[in-house]
Amino acid sequence: MRIVDVRTHVLLDPGYDIDATSSAQDTIVVEIETDNGLVGIGETDLNAWVARACIEAPGTHTMDRGLRGLLIGAEVEDAETMWQRLYVGTAMTGRRGALVNALGAIDIALWDIRGKAAGVPTWQLLGEQARTELTPYASLQPEVGSIAEYIESITAWATKARDLGFSAAKLEATFTGPYAHAGLDGPDSWIEDVVRSVRAAAGPEMTLMVDVQYAFSDVARALAVAEMLASYDVYFMETPLWVDDLAGYAELRAKSPVRIAQGEWLSTHHEFAQLVEGECVDVVQPDIGRIGGLTEALKVCQMARDRGLSVVPHAWKTGISVAVAAQLATVTPEMPFFEFLPAEFCESRLRRDLTVDELVYRDGRLGVPQLPGLGIELNREALEEFVEAARRVTPESLR
Question: What's the CATH number of domain 3-120+379-398, 3.40.630.30, 3.30.390.10, 3.40.50.300, 3.40.30.10?
Answer without folding.
Answer: 3.30.390.10
